[in-house]
């Protein structure tokens, strides 16, 4: 059984993946490498730290000596790279760290994988395809047309991963995920932001007309999709992971407010995100052909996520009342006051 180096394993999707993987693979071993940025939180795995199959190394994926040493000392056979700066709005406010981690960090992992002859699975995003016109669904061979600093950094990483396969024959796979929702998502992202604002009785800042479309997929289905590719995917291939069905942000907001029993008067339309991608939509047939299928419809995924926030104030209340406040003010104060962008 492989020993996994799960980078970014203390973040939202990484922690859900680690929990899922260890629940399904009794002989599995997982070493997390995580810088513990604001989005990386030990408490996301509060129930697992006593498990002898799991260990944590705190550090940066861009630190080549650390990555090499960790892989050698821990007998790593497979790197699964979740580590990234992940929020589009943060990438608009401060883009350079996105290049440091998402591009250079991924490049360092590839170099270590090349040196030590390891397989690398890279977690990418539907944002690399850019805005998708009505009627089209992105397939894995579509061109990459990223439009935000975040998406551009993820697209650069994808291309490095593919280049290492073509040039050096490195055994790689890539999954491109849709908008994930579920437990332990940092409340800067729309669904947990709206759910926690609703629970706090604060307004929900909807960018622009709220008719942008996203495929809100449950993180559990992303984890099973990654597992399917790790176990059955073809080396060198890319797989989309989502539900294949989108909804508007206003529909998502309605679900959140209805599940939480809050009034729709909390919705505020505010100044739009610059360069806001209007629609993402992916065809997921290639992953289905591996035998995978999503368990959650997007409406259930959003509803279940909202319920999780209602039941887990212990997790989000300290974040909301702490460091998050400064970001929230910078991002939303002027918008909510009706005086424009941050
Ligand atoms: P997140 O922001 O919740 O977590 C990111 C994790 O990476 C954190 O634990 C953080 O501490 C760690 N990290 C950041 N920089 C690091 C560095 N230099 N070295 C080591 N660790 C570092 O992110 P997420 O939402 O869980 O996303 C995980 C991955 O999935 C990312 O690659 C993201 O691009 C991709 N993705 C996310 C979504 C989504 O909807 N959230 C959808 C598709 C793909
Ligand atoms: O599509 C996959 C991507 O999904 C991932 O690669 C990213 O890491 C992840 O952050 C997410 O990106 P989005 O920008 O789509 O997600 P976010 O939750 O920030 O926003 C979802 C939608 O809601 C988007 O259309 C913008 C809108 N929005 C977001 C925020 C934070 C608002 O209307 N108001 C808000 O305050």
TrEMBL record:
<feature type="domain" description="NAD(P)-binding">
    <location>
        <begin position="5"/>
        <end position="304"/>
    </location>
</feature>
<dbReference type="InterPro" id="IPR016040">
    <property type="entry name" value="NAD(P)-bd_dom"/>
</dbReference>
<keyword id="KW-0520">NAD</keyword>
<protein>
    <recommendedName>
        <fullName>dTDP-glucose 4,6-dehydratase</fullName>
        <ecNumber>4.2.1.46</ecNumber>
    </recommendedName>
</protein>
<comment type="similarity">
    <text>Belongs to the NAD(P)-dependent epimerase/dehydratase family. dTDP-glucose dehydratase subfamily.</text>
</comment>
<dbReference type="InterPro" id="IPR036291">
    <property type="entry name" value="NAD(P)-bd_dom_sf"/>
</dbReference>
<dbReference type="InterPro" id="IPR005888">
    <property type="entry name" value="dTDP_Gluc_deHydtase"/>
</dbReference>
<dbReference type="GO" id="GO:0008460">
    <property type="term" value="F:dTDP-glucose 4,6-dehydratase activity"/>
</dbReference>
<dbReference type="Pfam" id="PF16363">
    <property type="entry name" value="GDP_Man_Dehyd"/>
</dbReference>
<keyword id="KW-0456">Lyase</keyword>
């Amino acid at each position: 059984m492989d020993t996994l180096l799960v980078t970014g394993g203390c973040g939202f999707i990484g922690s859900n993946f680690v929990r899922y993987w260890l629940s399904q693979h009794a002989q599995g071993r997982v070493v997390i490498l995580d810088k513990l940025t604001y989005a990386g939180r030990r408490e996301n795995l509060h129930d697992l730290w006593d498990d002898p199959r799991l260990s944590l190394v705190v550090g940066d994926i861009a630190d080549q000596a650390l990555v090499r040493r960790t892989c050698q000392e821990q007998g790593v056979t497979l790197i699964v790279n979740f580590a990234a700066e992940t929020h589009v709005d943060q990438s608009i406010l401060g883009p350079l760290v996105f290049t440091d981690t998402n591009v250079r960090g991924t490049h360092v992992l590839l170099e270590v994988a090349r040196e030590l002859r390891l397989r690398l699975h890279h977690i990418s995003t539907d944002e690399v395809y850019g805005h998708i016109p009505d009627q089209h669904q992105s397939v894995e061979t579509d061109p990459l047309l990223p439009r935000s600093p975040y998406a551009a950094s993820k697209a650069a990483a994808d291309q490095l991963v593919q280049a290492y396969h073509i040039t050096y024959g490195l055994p790689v796979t890539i999954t491109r995920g849709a908008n994930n929702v579920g437990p332990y998502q940092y409340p800067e992202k729309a669904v947990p932001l709206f759910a926690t604002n609703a629970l706090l009785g604060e307004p929900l800042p909807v960018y622009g007309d709220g008719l942008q479309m996203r495929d809100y997929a449950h993180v559990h289905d992303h984890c099973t999709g990654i597992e399917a590719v790790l176990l059955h995917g073809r080396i060198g291939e890319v797989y989309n992971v989502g539900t294949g069905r989108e909804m508007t942000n206003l529909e998502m907001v309605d679900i959140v407010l209805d599940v939480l029993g809050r009034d729709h008067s909390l919705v505020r339309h505010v100044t739009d995100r610059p360069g806001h991608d209007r629609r993402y939509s992916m065809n997921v047939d290639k992953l289905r052909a591996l035998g995978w299928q999503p368990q959650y419809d997007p409406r259930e995924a959003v509803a279940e996520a909202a319920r999780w926030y209602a039941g887990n104030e212990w997790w989000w209340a300290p974040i909301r009342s702490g460091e998050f406040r400064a970001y929230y003010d910078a991002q939303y104060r002027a918008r909510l006051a009706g005086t424009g962008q941050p």
